[in-house]
Amino acid sequence: MCLSPFPPKSASVHVHASLPAPIHCLFSSPAQRFSSPFPHPPPLFSFLFSSQTERPSEQTAFCQTVTRGQNKTMSSVLQGKRKRQDLASRLSASMNNEEGRVYNIIRGRKEMGIWQGDIKREANIPDSLLKKSIKMLITKKLVKEVVNVQNRSKKLLMASDFEPSNEISGGEWYTEGKLDTEFIDKLSEACFSSIRRLKVATCEGILEWIRKAGGGVSKGQMEQILKKLVMENKVQEVTSDGSGDFESVPVGEVCYRLVKKAAGVGAMASIPCGVCPRINSCTPDGVISPTTCQYYQKWLDF
């Protein structure tokens, strides 16, 4: 039995063949992204293209954004936060006493890393020798510098066979210590468009749709995106009653739908003239006119 987290190539091709063009764009290989027989993007991602004809440049930019975020997500979810590398050849290289002492201190902090000042106090070696040892360890790729999102100016040192914890890296939404807002926005748009198309959708439903396409978005990520949309008053969290639009969702299950916008106020009702009882007597050069109306002036000032 194959225990690989990735489906066999034949299965992957079969899945992609049955999916809309934008899904190929999101999760297929570069060679497959534009091989879909669909001439136009379906409604799910129509918000990304202003015209009815495809725009390869826009699709490519969107694909690159989402793929970058998903590659990062797949790396952390499927391989784990602690990616062990084969360090036998590196560790066999000669390290003097100071380098070995510094390396052991750094590696002992695991995924939390350690600041250079703390190493100096713990190792009790001269500053010049410490800097030289750290430089050699980085050159040998035994140690790396990582950015702490809580204090970007204070870089940490970490053994190369560890990945920074969420507390240090910021979690799956961060890339090299920076919040990947572009990926978040694109994923939010895709989630919003999916709910608009389905009218009512569950977190599991959206997640299953993405996973069938071969995406690596986690349930935690999807829940955070939905919470973001709720806080932005774009999506409403509701409980299914099993009727109407909720027929496809079991009774009592939490689901999401678009927020219903309140009916707009008519143009005439928004200005004083729309409710003025003397509007029939109002003329540009008369006793009652817009230039002498105090209510109209207040409305203009507002």
Automatic annotation (TrEMBL):
Presence of keyword Nucleus: yes
Record localization: Nucleus
UniProt keyword terms in alphabetical order: DNA-directed RNA polymerase, Nucleus, Transcription
CC annotations in GO: cytoplasm; nucleoplasm; RNA polymerase III complex
InterPro entries: RNA_pol_Rpc34, RNA_pol_Rpc34-like, WH-like_DNA-bd_sf, WH_DNA-bd_sf
UniProt keyword Nucleotidyltransferase, yes or no: no
Protein name: DNA-directed RNA polymerase III subunit RPC6
Gene that encodes it: LOC100810279
Family recorded in the similarity comment: Belongs to the eukaryotic RPC34/RPC39 RNA polymerase subunit family.
Domain of life: Eukaryota
GO biological process: transcription by RNA polymerase III
Coiled-coil parts of chain: none
Pfam families with a match to the protein in the record: RNA_pol_Rpc34
